[in-house]
Amino acid sequence: MTHDLAMHAAGDPPQSRAAASEAVAAAILLAQELRWQGRPDAACDAVLAAYPLAADPETVYSAALFIKQTRREARAFELCEDALSRGIRAPRLLALHGSLAQALGQFECARESLLAAWREGVDLNEWQVLPALAHLQRYVDASHPDREILLRALQSPELLPRTRAALAFALGKFYDDVGNHVSAVAAWREAHALALSAGPWDRAKWVLDVEIARGAVSPAQDRKRLPFVPVLVVGVPRSGTTLLADRLGRHPEAVNRGELPILAYLAEQLRATPGDTVRLHAARLLAAAHLRQDDAPQGWYIDKNPFNLLALETARALWPEAKVIWCRRQRHATALSLWTQSFAHPDYGFTHHFDDIARVLDDCDALLTFASEKWGAAMHVVDYEALVEAPETTLAQVGDFLGLPHAADQPSRQTAIATASLWQARQPIHRHSVERWMVYAPLIPELGRI
Fold first, then answer.
1. Which of 35, 80, 147, 279 could crosslink 97 through cysteines, CB 3.0-4.6 Å?
2. pTM for the full model?
3. Distance (Å) of CA 309 to CA 7, 198, 327, 358, 365
């Protein structure tokens, strides 16, 4: 390997398994603090320095999983590759390797490891390796073996409802890809019934969050301009946020950080202590550190957490230099895309009912109007339809808005995409999904009433 693990290639004999495990566990405790400070590379270094070359599978798994959670997927993937090349195999390690390959866009490698993890008995309730198969390609053959794999897995009595729901969503995608729309709708309806067994969406919390999002936040004092531009890409999920952020992140002077949780966390903390200027200043520095991090500096950093639309007043108080791009998509198309997608986080529980989807869409439209008045020229709206119909023109307009120097579109960097759009975002921009909802309107009456 080429990274810090080379230091273990010679010298002292390998540590015992127990000592290795304890060393990695201790390193992770230190690394958690470094990660919180916005220093993910240093956090990874701390873990890797404790990782022995002759580690057992569980030690490798613990180290690689932490590094993945630190959003350094390429380094975690390298660690897994090294272990597998030396014959260190375990079902969970194979599942993690496949998940990392998937996020990094190495879809053939991902398929191989995900299937290997399944065959070697990985716990499907812990690692949903079979639903992940559906997100590695667009199916064109109705007889593809994945169909039988998903159908057989759905019959397993050991699976939790949420796992069976994920399998049913994946089966629905399979049928949708091959044009069997009736079967797709049936699979999706089964998926929602299974998912709802975990409990209903907390609509009251959403209503409160939207109300709080309109509350003013006093700006931090003595705000020196940051040496970079924070860029928030927000919008209803499935409105093109991943696609746009990926394309912007290909610019040589911009970095796409994916979906960061820090702004939402700080917004909640600051609401608990309104008017605390010391805490507000500390929050400004911490939020900037999580954007900047400790890799090579660039001029624009992108946070594409779509629900940062609930924390824009906090962002405005922290960063006078920040810019917001609000992604917007045709209402029915957005609703269908939300309803046909599997989401693990409870905040996405609204996707199980079209009435709840309509409520979120209405509230987000109102928040867009509110935010436009507050941000003025520092906000730019991108319509999904414009992005797929005229990508070069739309991206040039976004670049002008951000002040990005004009540059030719670059190949996608080896950056990870962890959202449901991980396959689509890596394909050439197309308009396949623009009018897809019209095909399903006769089969899903609720969609027509959205």
1. 80
2. 0.89
3. 45, 27, 11, 17, 11
Label the pairing between strands 379-383 and 323-328.
Answer: parallel
CA angle 403, 226, 275 (to 5 degrees): 120
Domain ranges across the chain: 1-122, 211-329+343-429
Q: Which amino acid does the sequence have at 70?
A: T
Provide the H-helix boundaries in 5-56: 17-36, 40-49
Query: Cβ contacts of residue 347 below 8 Å, gap of 6+?
Result: 307
Separation between Cα atoms, residue 99 and residue 219, nearest integer Å: 40
Q: How do residues 320-341 score in pLDDT, each as one tens digit? A: 999 999 999 999 999 999 999 9
Q: What pLDDT, on a 0 to 100 scale, did the predictor assign at position 9?
A: 35
Percent of the chain with pLDDT over 70: 89
Check if the beta carbon of residue 252 is closer than 8 Å to that of residue 410.
yes
Which of 285, 290, 286 is closest to 301 using CA atoms? 290
Segment 155-163 long-range contacts (CB within 8 Å, at least 24 positions apart): 156/124, 158/124, 158/125, 159/124, 159/125, 160/125, 161/194, 161/195, 161/197, 161/198, 162/194, 162/195, 162/198, 162/344, 163/124, 163/125, 163/128, 163/131
- Beta-bridge mates of residue 326: 234, 381
* Residue whose C-alpha is closest to residue 243's, from 124, 147, 325: 325
Task: Find residue 235's DSSP bridge partners.
Answer: 327
**Amino acid identity, residue 88?**
I
Using only C-alpha atoms, the chain has a radius of gyration, in whole angstroms, of 23
User: What CATH number does domain 1-122 carry, 3.90.45.10, 1.10.540.10, 1.50.10.10, 1.25.40.10?
Assistant: 1.25.40.10
- What's domain 211-329+343-429's architecture? 3-Layer(aba) Sandwich (3.40)
Return d(Cα 122, Cα 322) in angstroms, integer.
44
User: What percent of the residues of the chain are helix, what percent strand, and what percent coil, each to the nearest 5?
Assistant: 60, 5, 35
How many Å apart are CA 150 and CA 61, to the nearest integer?
A: 26
Going by C-alpha positions, the residue among 297, 252, 298, 296 that lies closest to residue 409 is 252
Amino acid letter, residue 430 = H
